[in-house]
Every structure is written in structure tokens, then in C-alpha cells.
Specification:
Helix content: 25-40%
Mean pLDDT: 90
Low-confidence stretches: none
Distance between the termini: 32 Å
Order of helices and strands: EEEHEEEHEHHHHHEHEHEEHHEEHH
Number of helices: 13
GO molecular function: ATP binding; ATP hydrolysis activity
Keywords: ATP-binding, Cell inner membrane, Cell membrane, Membrane, Nucleotide-binding, Translocase, Transport
Bound molecules: adenosine-5'-triphosphate
Subcellular location: Cell membrane
Shape: globular
Radius of gyration: 22 Å
Structural class: alpha/beta
Strand order of the largest sheet: 7-8-9-3-10-11-13-12
Membrane topology: Peripheral membrane protein
Protein name: ABC transporter ATP-binding protein
Length: 371
């Protein structure tokens, strides 16, 4: 297999707050190959945004990347090493200047959820796009303007020559998001990080943007990291998916395997909580309880406090993240030889609700009672 475009290895980012140390990203590893759309999915607070801002080296105080290595095209954009009991940046790690002038915008672009945060309301859409291109592509003002108009056309903005002079507030939410996609694509980066870019849009416009991204991705062969809490969006755009919970990746698989060969109870719970065409809305099940604080994560498996299938072994044993089928990784003691099957169920709201729903019996029937 070819080398990954981006390789994230044991990435750790913490926030040093008055309440304590928030382990927002706690040992995350995943790869992105050329032309691939890789999902990062999980509930609010899972650490998705901190993971992507860490990759871009945009973590701000009181946050700090405290461990791990991120390689982009073989170059270490993050590389924290232990040296005499202290952590420090390795000598090979790219400098802040190199990140600013070579990587961000040019090689790795980012699209945020709220285009109004990225667009300045007092300048026209065209001038902002032109300036971005001028700075990042080292071209003349006139060339940058031509490329800007071309890009507006490319992302489906009607009459791009005249819309070039419009202000952001004169665009709809969907059109503003198209402008940000144009901006991200304008320097022909190898990787685009899309952080919940369609969450604020209504379903129809979201569908149009997802179709647009699909077309553009095929045309430019750009890789994406797609951050979302929405499994429906994952199904639509992603090739491979990483599921995050409390700072960790707990399952990773090609998209079809994740949906049809689901391994982790958290992924199953996420899937039960989204509407499907074959399901009535009143059959949806929200995930029991709220995500615990990342300052003081539960012992053992971090999901055990909300897991419908939790047993007494779960708070005691930290599950290993391992490959259980081709390209399918999971961290859950159900797939380890640590006595899950013999362990009695934990007495929690989630396990009781699960037992009462009769799903335990259904599982026993389909599984022949064992795993
Ligand atoms: N500036 C900060 N100071 C302290 N804690 C922070 C800061 N930014 C993020 N965190 C914490 O880091 C953890 C991960 O947050 P993050 O925003 O990455 O989650 P997320 O999965 O992207 O959620 P969302 O979908 O809501 O953006 C959370 O516990 C959050 O409270």
C-alpha cells in the first residue's frame, strides 16, 4: 500500500484550566490516504475539533499539544518527544513559519461550521477570496481575481462576475459555505479539513453542499477529514470513519463495515440515535446519559458509564485498540480475552434500559449467546 498523505500517531492535546487538566485528545491515531474522505464522528465534546486544530497546529492557550507525531507527506508537522523526563518539540518538527507559509492554506485548508466567522462582513466576498489567493499562490492581483471568479463559478455561485462584489450578508448560508469551499480549494491543497461545514444548514441545502463536495473531490482528488456528529452525513460522504469518544478513537472502519458490521456499543448507540429511511422517528433512541467530563474520565473503558452492554469487567480493564477484521479497529473488551462473557452486567441506567428493551434476548438469539 502507498504511504498515507497524513499520518496521526498517538496525538495528545490538553487544556490546563482552573478546574483541572482537560485531556481533550488522548492518544489519537489515524491515517488519511490520497483522495480519501475520512470521517471523524462523535458527540459534542468528543475532541473532534481539538484533534483537527492540533493537526493544523492552531491550538491556543490554555491548550497544548503534549504528545504524538503527525506526518504530512512524510514531514513531521507535529513531533513531540520525551527528553530527560521533559517534553519538547523534536528538531525535525516544522517551524511555525513553515506551517504558516508552506502548509496552512496551501497544502492543508480548513472549512469551518460558521462561514460568518471566516468571512469579514465589511469586505466583499470577491475581495476576500482574491486576497487569499494572492497571498497563498504568489500571483498578481489580476490573476487572483480571475481565479476567484473561476472558483465562484466552480462551486455553483450563479453570475460569479457580479456576485464577486457582494458582501457576505447578501449571500444565503449555503452560498457562504460554497464561498468557503471555493476558498479552501483555490490553492489546490492536498487535504481539506471540513469541521461540521453543513451542520448549520437546512437539510436540502446540506444535501446540495454534500453533492458539490462529492463532485469537486472527484475532480480535484483532494483528501478530506470530515468532522461531524451526524452519522447520516458520514454515510453520504465518507470512505473511512473514525468514531471518537472522550478524546479517544474507539472504532475505525471503512464506511460500509462501520454501518453493517458495527463493533463498538457506542457506534451502535450513535447509529440507533439517527433517523433512517426504514425507521419511524419515534423509534429513535437517544444515547443514555451525558458524556462525562474529559478532566476526570471514567476508569477502564471510558464509555462504560453509558454503555448498554457494560459488565463489571469494563470499569476495571482499559480496552486495547486492536484490529478485529480487515481494516476494522475497535477498543472494547468484548473482543478481548479478559473475561467479558463471564462478567455480570453492571447495574446502570443504560444497562437496565437495554435489558428492559428486550434487545439482550435478540442479541443472544442471533449470536447463539456467545461472542
Ligand atoms: N479552550 C478550551 N479550554 C478548555 N477546554 C477546552 C477548550 N477547547 C476545547 N476544550 C475541551 O476539549 C474537549 C473536546 O472539545 P472539542 O471542541 O474538540 O469537541 P468536539 O467533539 O469538536 O465537539 P463539538 O462538536 O461540540 O465541537 C471538551 O471537553 C472541551 O470542553
Amino acid at each position: 500500500m502507498t504511504e498515507p498523505l497524513l499520518s496521526v500517531e498517538n496525538l495528545q492535546t490538553r487544556f490546563y484550566t482552573e478546574e483541572g487538566v482537560v485531556r481533550a485528545v488522548d492518544g489519537v491515531s489515524f491515517d488519511v490516504y490520497e483522495g480519501e474522505i475520512v470521517g471523524l464522528v462523535g458527540e459534542s465534546g468528543a475532541g473532534k475539533s481539538v484533534a483537527t486544530t492540533s493537526i493544523m497546529r492552531l491550538v491556543e492557550e490554555p491548550g497544548e499539544i503534549v504528545g504524538g507525531r503527525v506526518e504530512f507527506k512524510g514531514e513531521p508537522i507535529v513531533d513531540i518527544v520525551e527528553d530527560g523526563g521533559k517534553r519538547r518539540r523534536s528538531d525535525e518538527m516544522l517551524s511555525n513559519r513553515e506551517m504558516r507559509t508552506r502548509i496552512r492554506g496551501r497544502e492543508i485548508a480548513i472549512i469551518f461550521q460558521d462561514p460568518m466567522e471566516a468571512l469579514n462582513p465589511v469586505f466583499t466576498v470577491g475581495s476576500q477570496l482574491r486576497e487569499f489567493i494572492e497571498i497563498n499562490r504568489d500571483v498578481s492581483k489580476q490573476e487572483a481575481k480571475e481565479t476567484a471568479i473561476e472558483m465562484l463559478h466552480e462551486v455553483g455561485i450563479p453570475e460569479p462576475e457580479s456576485r464577486y462584489d457582494s458582501y457576505p450578508h447578501q449571500f444565503s448560508g449555503g452560498m457562504r459555505q460554497r464561498v468557503l469551499i471555493a476558498m479552501a480549494l483555490s490553492c489546490e491543497p492536498s487535504l481539506i479539513i471540513a469541521d461540521e461545514p453543513t451542520t448549520a444548514l437546512d437539510v436540502t441545502v446540506e444535501g446540495q453542499i454534500l453533492d458539490l463536495v462529492d463532485d469537486l473531490q472527484a475532480k480535484y482528488d483532494t483528501s478530506f477529514i470530515w468532522v461531524t456528529h451526524d452519522m447520516g452525513v458520514v454515510a453520504e460522504v465518507c470512505d473511512r470513519v473514525n468514531v471518537m469518544y472522550l478524546g479517544e478513537i474507539i472504532e475505525q472502519a471503512p464506511v460500509d463495515d462501520l454501518f453493517y458490521e458495527t463493533k463498538h456499543p457506542y457506534t451502535e448507540a450513535l447509529l440507533r440515535s439517527i433517523p433512517r429511511p426504514d425507521q419511524r422517528v419515534d423509534e429513535l433512541e437517544p444515547i443514555t446519559g451525558v458524556m462525562p467530563e474529559a478532566i476526570d474520565p471514567p476508569s477502564g473503558c471510558r464509555f462504560h458509564t453509558r454503555c448498554p452492554e457494560a459488565r463489571e469487567v469494563c470499569p476495571r480493564v482499559e480496552p486495547a485498540y486492536q484490529e478485529v477484521a480487515d481494516g476494522h479497529h475497535v477498543s472494547c473488551v468484548k473482543y478481548e480475552d479478559v473475561g467479558y462473557d463471564e462478567s455480570p452486567p453492571l447495574d446502570t441506567e443504560a444497562t437496565n434500559a437495554f435489558a428492559a428493551s428486550g434487545m439482550l434476548d435478540e442479541e443472544a438469539e442471533t449470536d447463539g449467546g456467545s461472542r
